[in-house]
C-alpha cells in the first residue's frame, strides 16, 4: 500500500465515509493515475481537466458515474494533498431527471409472494416495511428490534447516523414468527458462518422474485424503498416525518417523492403498509 493511498484511507475514516465510498473514491484516484501514467500528487489542474474530458467524451460515462469520480478526486486533492482549492473548470454532464417506475402495492405483494425462500422473503418484507436501504437490511441485529416500543433501530445508516423506524404490528408479528423459526443469534439475517450476508444474495433474490411475479418495471431492490416512501406519502404521512424515517439529511431529497406522487396528501402517523399488502392479496 502506497503512502498516498494510506493517507487517503485515513482521511476517509476521519470523515466517517462508508466502505462503499472508500471503494469508489480510491477507484477514482487509481483510474486517474492509470490514465495519466503519473502519480496523482505530480499532476496539475490541466491534467485533471483532460481526464474528465476523457471520461465524458471518450468513455461516455453516465453523469452519475462522472460525478462519483469527480467527488472522489476532489476529496483527494483537498483533504489528502491539502490543495487550497480545487477549481477544475469541468462542466459535468447534467443528471437526467427521470421518474423511476414505482412499484404499486399489488406488485410489491406479488414480488414478496414469489420469493420462495422464507428467510429472503422476510428480508425483502423488512426492506419494504421499514423503507430500508440494502446495506441497512443486511446490518440488522436481533438486538435492534424493540418489540415493546415497536421500533427498529437502524444503526449507522448512510451518513453515519442512527435512527428509529416504526415496526407496524403486522411486520412485528412476522418478525417474531421468523425468529421462532430460525432462532438467529447476533445478526438477524446471518450467513452460513454467522457473519452478515453478501448484498448480492438479496439482490439476486429480489430480481428472481420479480421475474417470477411477472413484474417488468425497471429497477432493483431499492425500488422497495421507493415504494415504501410513496405509499406512506399517499396514505398521508407528512414529508418531514418521512425524511426522518428514511434517514435523509436534506428535505430536498425527500421532496422528490412528492413530485413523483402528485396525489400525496398530508396526514398523521405511518400506515401499516404490510397489512395493506394482505388486504390487496385478499
TrEMBL record:
Tyr recombinase domain: residues covered: 98-272
Pfam families: Phage_int_SAM_4 (PF13495), Phage_integrase (PF00589)
A biological process from GO: DNA integration
Matching InterPro entries: CB, DNA_brk_join_enz, Integrase-like_cat_sf, Integrase_catalytic, Integrase_recombinase_N, Integrase_SAM-like_N, Tyrosine_recombinase_XerCD
Domain Core-binding (CB) stretches: 1-81
Protein name: Tyrosine-type recombinase/integrase
GO molecular function: DNA binding
Domain of life of the native organism: Bacteria
Coiled coil, from the record: none
Keywords: DNA integration, DNA recombination, DNA-binding
PANTHER family according to UniProt: PHAGE INTEGRASE-RELATED, TYROSINE RECOMBINASE XERD
